[in-house]
Design brief:
With 275 residues, this protein is an alpha+beta fold. The chain has 2 domains: 4-154, no CATH class; 170-273, OB fold (Dihydrolipoamide Acetyltransferase, E2P). The protein contains 6 helices and 10 strands, in the order ααααβββββαβββββα. A 5-stranded antiparallel sheet has the order 5-4-3-7-6. Helix 3 (73-102) packs across helix 4 (115-159). It is elongated.
């Protein structure tokens, strides 16, 4: 998903208008606080506002690909603090450097008392931008998962329009030169591993040369739920369900394995459990 500002011209215009308004607001706030000319204050606001708008574009990719949601609370706070320090520090330093190059004859000393205010502004802008991005990405993630689920359901319907899918009662896995048969009720969770699947039981885990789609179709639907694109869980071995993120739940199984359920997967789980 590309940055929303680049999805069409209307969004790009709105994005530019937002940072123009922020630039003007900064300019008019500092006019009574410093002794510089009106033009210089306008330049200061423009450089501050538009440059942070540029940094905000880069932050989109960082927030999108970093996946801080997989970290625990403390790690997530540290990660966001580090990102804030880098972002605000670069913005602050380059802003004043550009002003110095543009007006080398001006003494920037009158701006020194404004440094705390400027840093506070940078932190506020950073927080607003990151919060907005997280909400956009969460909403987009839910939409993608719902579309993926619909595609899977449509594909199953098209491939098996008239015939009932066989529900398996046991899974055979090869261990060295031996073949072990695993009763379906003994399976805790099936985990995606590329074109293979990892079957977890109370005794251990085994690799099976089958796709997640196969297990989703052939395991009993009243007992196994695909709670995430990478996990199919046996609902009878779930010992605890707790909130992990705004749109996600964390499942704890009887063997201690913890699995993050997507919003779509959790809805399917609640339906199966009649919650």
């Amino acid at each position: 998903m590309e940055h929303p500002a680049f999805q069409n011209k209307v969004f790009l215009s709105i994005y530019l208008l937002i940072w123009t308004a922020i630039s003007l607001a900064i300019s008019f706030v500092i006019i009574p606080l410093v002794s510089f000319s009106f033009e210089f204050c306008l330049l200061f606001g423009a450089v501050s506002g538009y440059f942070f708008g540029g940094i905000a574009l880069l932050l989109w990719n960082v927030v999108k690909y970093a996946d801080y949601s997989s970290q625990n609370g403390f790690q997530r706070v540290v990660s966001y603090l580090a990102l804030a320090v880098v972002s605000v520090g670069v913005w602050f330093g380059i802003t004043y450097f550009i002003l110095y190059l543009s007006f080398p004859e001006n003494n920037l000393a009158p701006f020194v008392p404004l440094i705390p205010l400027e840093l506070l502004l940078g932190c506020c802008l950073f927080s607003i931008v990151v919060l907005a991005y997280n909400r956009m990405l969460e909403k987009n993630k839910v939409t993608e998962e719902e579309e993926e689920l619909q595609e899977i359901e449509q594909a199953v319907t098209q491939e098996n329009p008239d015939s009932a899918i066989e529900i398996v009662e046991r899974i055979a896995v090869k261990i060295g030169q031996k073949i072990e048969v695993i009763p379906v009720p003994d399976i805790f969770v099936v985990q995606a591993e590329g074109d293979y699947a990892m079957i977890h039981t109370a005794k251990g885990h085994h690799m099976k040369e089958q796709t997640m789609k196969y297990f989703e179709e052939h395991l009993p639907s009243n007992q196994f739920v695909r709670v995430h694109r990478s996990y199919i869980v046996n609902v009878q071995v779930i010992s605890k369900i707790e909130l992990f993120e705004k749109q996600n739940q964390l499942l704890t199984l009887q063997n201690g394995i913890q699995i993050k359920a997507s919003a779509t997967g959790y809805r399917l789980l609640k339906k199966t459990l009649n919650l």
